[in-house]
Amino acid sequence: MTIEPVRSKRRPVLIALAIAVVLAVVASAVVIALTNFAGQQRKESLALLKEDRLTSLVEARGKIQPAVNAYLAAYKKARNVPASREDAEKNSAKERDEFQQAVDSARTALNDVQTGNGAGGEAETIAVAITQLGDSYQAYLDSMEGLVESYPQFEGLFREDAGCSGLFVGSKAANLRERQTLLAQAAVPCREAVNQLKKSKNISYVEFARTLDNEIAQLESHAETTAKSEENYNEFVRLKDEYVKKIDDATARNAPEAEYLKIADELKALNTRIRNNRSEFDFAAKRYVSGVKDMPTLVEDVFSKNVAAQIKHHDTVIPVRVQVLKDAIDAELAE
Question: What angle do CA 210, 214, 218 make, to 5 degrees?
């Protein structure tokens, strides 16, 4: 008789455990493979960001300034033909379009850097560096766009029969009150033009417009003071003639001493008013003349100093931001 071996109840359990161990090992291998694959992808993405996208970003920015200069030169040349603002804009449209294309390309390059970093959520250093670079780069593009967009407004401010050209009315006025009146009239269209320039995306134009607005107010104030002083002077001349007659009359009547003393006190008070009036006139007149003389320098400084300093700032900051991002990428790739 054959005796059947007794099946152990442990065997199915051991088999199940073995299968579980094998599956766990396989799963671990898959996880490791996927992790290695993701890590490799991440490194390739970071390398692409550093070598290609950042290079494109830098090259795109390098085309902005030449495009700006080409447009400004073309517009100014067209305006000096002479031509109207509309004609100048039409005759410089080619350079304007080329500038806009350069800006659009730069924005595309920036977008590629911002959206294609592939660093993942844990690469905080890279994310921060990209944000800082993006803010500086975008500020530069906005600034240059504002420089070009608002140039016709700025360039035309002091052209004849436009904007602020009527501010310089000294030779057209017969007296200081007429000068004050003509200035007040000229200030209206000038302020309208200045307020438009204040809306520019370029801070140099905005600061210039604010300064010019203040200068206009100062000119108006000084013009009013000098006009009033001139009128006061004419009144003083009339009063002087009256006092000459008073003294002659008192002398003819052999007036008492008290009357002479009263006239002397009145003349002393009048002389004080004349001195004060002269002081106010001299102060306002000097400031008015200085304001008019300084106007060309105020205009020239927009590009020679303010815009130049603005560009220098961007030229300093942006390369630093780029290098910081490259260093952050290198540190991440080295891990």
Answer: 165
Quote the number of domains for the chain.
Answer: 1
In a domain, 306, yes or no: no
**pTM score, whole prediction:** 0.81
Distance CA 193, CA 203 (A): 16
Cα separation values, 138 from 142, 200, 291, Å: 6, 16, 36
Print the domain residue range for 175. Answer: 160-298
- Does some domain include residue 155? no
Q: What is the pLDDT along the chain (335 residues), one digit of tens a residue?
A: 454 555 555 666 666 666 665 555 554 544 444 444 445 667 777 887 888 899 999 999 999 999 999 999 999 999 998 889 999 999 999 999 999 999 999 999 999 999 865 444 447 889 899 999 999 999 999 999 999 999 999 999 998 767 798 888 877 888 999 999 999 999 999 999 999 999 999 999 999 999 999 999 999 999 999 999 999 999 999 999 999 999 999 999 898 999 999 999 999 999 999 999 999 999 999 999 999 999 999 999 999 999 999 999 999 999 999 999 999 988 888 87
Distances (CA, A) of 57 to 21, 46, 333: 51, 15, 21
Residues with Cβ within 8 Å of 105's Cβ and at least 6 positions away in sequence, in order, are: 60, 63
195 inside domain: yes
Q: What is the Cα–Cα distance from 250 to 315, expressed in whole angstroms?
A: 81
Task: Report if residue 230 sits inside a domain.
Answer: yes
